[in-house]
Request: fold
Amino acid sequence: MKIAIVGNGIAGVTAAKSISENLPGAEITIFTDEEYNYYPRPLLDRLLSGSMDLNGMFPYNDEWYGKKGIRVSLGDRVTDIDTSSKKINTSKSGACGYDRLLLATGASPFVPPLEGVPAGKVFAYRNIADVLRIRSFAGDKKKAAVIGGGLLGLETAKALADRGMKVAVIEHNTRLLPRQLDEEGASLIKSRIEEMNIEVLLGAAPERVDADLFVVSAGVRSNTGLAKACGIGVQKGILVDGGLRTDRPDVFAAGDCAEFNGTVYGIIPAALEQGQAAASNMIGRPVEYKGTTFQATLKVAGIDVASIGIVNPEGEGYESIIRKDAAKGIYRKCVIKDGKLAGSIIIGERSVVASLARIIRDKIDVSKGRDALMGDDAALSGIAMKGSTN
Ligand SMILES: Cc1cc2nc3c(=O)[nH]c(=O)nc-3n(C[C@H](O)[C@H](O)[C@H](O)COP(=O)(O)OP(=O)(O)OC[C@H]3O[C@@H](n4cnc5c(N)ncnc54)[C@H](O)[C@@H]3O)c2cc1C
Reply:
């Protein structure tokens, strides 16, 4: 079976690995327009700060791909797809036929026009090439601004500060991490970030800031152009069903480029799960993907922050219970609906994250264990255990 995969990110490489393990002999080719083998994008911060060099970025070398029977065509952009003759065209390899095609084209940063800021000072931040560009421009410059106080923006700010730069984070919203935290959690994080000498400007506009370079972290857009050009159904992302199938026979999509049930997840756990489920369906082993629980974890200034599921509920029937200890930098919020935990914010308490995530994911009844939700990991494991024996 000839498998073509467009994109060598976590969705593409996971699917390739799974197919090679479950269908020995499959001819698998990954086409990527990047010049590098797969690397986890969270490592880009270390490349930016200078704490890791390029060689440390790649978990799989050429030998690994070779052993798995996966061919990777680097620097090879897929330019169009003909779904009726089952062929793709690429910038280097020309026309290639496929039996099954996976679109794992990911997403690209959204860079809004920044009034009053010279274009040459503005940088996107998504891949190795972007980081090398920023590093070479930064040289011994002193002042950097990060546009966007979301998860990625804060990690980028920390990486730039670790390079020895004076950094300001500019967030047009009135609080940091608006998607992951509530008012209280965000204000705790803001204080801790300011303690690191990173300036935080809320409700601010970039032109107010005098910086040598601006790194934009203002969200991403799915790469849907290739699919759209050949008539595959696209909205925010490439539309897929529970089998990760697009509306064309034998064409699948997974990861940041895919939209399932109205949602483009844009997170690694979803790209992984979708890549795995797509792979299984591509080789004729039906698996139904049912969605991924939103989960984000980050560490800034040594603080662990986790945000899982629904944390800023809108609508009826939600109740929130909160525990905080500002002196210790601890904050925990549990959002409950219909006796189940719908979401949680956990700051400064890494040990309880896995259990809370499990209680949310497995939709465990917490109506009799509400006090334990504010307890330690042993108390939370108790709830999770009861749930699994019910
Ligand atoms: C700095 C950074 C840190 C992050 N940290 C986290 C984190 O801590 N936790 C988390 O959950 N998520 C994180 N994310 C998001 C996460 O990296 C993405 O959700 C994930 O990379 C999506 O994987 P993917 O395989 O769908 O797409 P991508 O990783 O975007 O890979 C898609 C690949 O396809 C290539 N491509 C696109 N079009 C074509 C074409 N026509 N021909 C050939 N190749 C093509 C692209 O160049 C790209 O290499 C982070 C992202 C960044 C940038």
About this structure: The mean pLDDT is 93. The pocket of flavin-adenine dinucleotide is lined by residues 6-12, 31-34, 41-42, 44-45, 77-78, 104-107, 126, 152, 223, 226, 255-256, 266-268, 271 (CB under 6 Å). The domain at 302-389 is CATH 3.30.390.30 (Enolase-like; domain 1). The CA atoms of residues 34 and 129 lie 8 Å apart.
